[in-house]
Write a structure and sequence with these properties.
Number of strands: 9
Helix content: 10-25%
CATH topology: Nucleoside Triphosphate Pyrophosphohydrolase
CATH architecture: Alpha-Beta Complex
Number of domains: 1
Distance between the termini: 38 Å
Radius of gyration: 14 Å
Length: about 130
């Protein structure tokens, strides 16, 4: 069996001991906001574009820093389909609000793991282990 790998980028935004997670229309689980890069885009360019589309904020390129890679079973995909999410942190201008395919933005912590996709849960567990969220 060949493993299919979906490569994505995501933004980790922290506030008051919680992390911003999003849910798409017609989905039940939350995941880290971001998406796939388009041909020729750098990680930073793709992240800026996706976050602008999904959350209507403009990332400040000089503040983008790599946080970590997380890999796990992709939500809603065939077994064996893995998603690798390269997570970044960044400052931004504007106010976070759901747009495009995003139905809901929520601030989550370790008590919300059942509401998260597998990889979002891994990210939350890592943030907790680093004492960045509750």
């Amino acid at each position: 069996m060949t493993t299919k790998m979906i490569d994505k980028l995501a933004l980790i935004t922290l506030k008051d001991g919680k992390v911003a997670m999003v849910r798409s229309h017609n989905k039940t689980l939350f995941y880290a906001p971001g998406g796939k890069r388009e041909a020729g885009e750098t990680d930073e360019q793709a992240l800026c574009r996706e976050i602008d589309e999904e959350l209507t904020v403009t990332l400040i390129p000089d503040t983008i820093s790599f946080y970590g890679d997380f890999t796990g079973q992709a939500d809603g995909k065939q077994d064996g389909t893995q998603v690798r999410i390269r997570c970044f942190q960044a400052e931004f201008t504007g106010e976070l609000k759901p747009a495009a395919e995003i139905a809901e933005l929520a601030w989550l912590d370790s008590s919300d793991l059942p509401r998260c996709s597998l990889v979002a849960a891994l990210i939350i567990k890592d943030l907790c282990a680093r004492k960045l969220i509750n």
